[in-house]
Amino acid sequence: MTVTLFQAARPPVCFLLLGSEGGMQRAVGCSYDWTTGTLYRETVLRMETSCKDKMDLVSRARIGLEKKVKGPRIIAAPPKPKGMKRSKM
Fold this sequence. Notes:
Elements: E1 14-21, E2 24-33, E3 38-48, E4 63-64
Parallel strand pairs: 3-4
Antiparallel strand pairs: 1-2, 2-3
C-alpha cells in the first residue's frame, strides 16, 4: 500500500485515470459540484498500473478544468451609534 500526501482547495471525491506515462497511470483527483453535476480537477497524481485493474469504468463524465470561485466579500463595519460617548476609566 502506498500513501501519497497532496494539497487541494476542495477535497476530491474521485480519481479518474486519464492516461499513462512511464509505466504509471495519470490520475486526476476531482471534487463534485452537485448544482451543475460537474467534476472539477483538484490535483493530478501518478498511480501504479495495478490500481487500474481494481477500478470500475464509467462511460462518460462532465469535467471542468477550473472552477470559478467567488472571492471573499468585504463587509463594512457597522456605523457607530450617534450620541454615545466613550466612558473614561
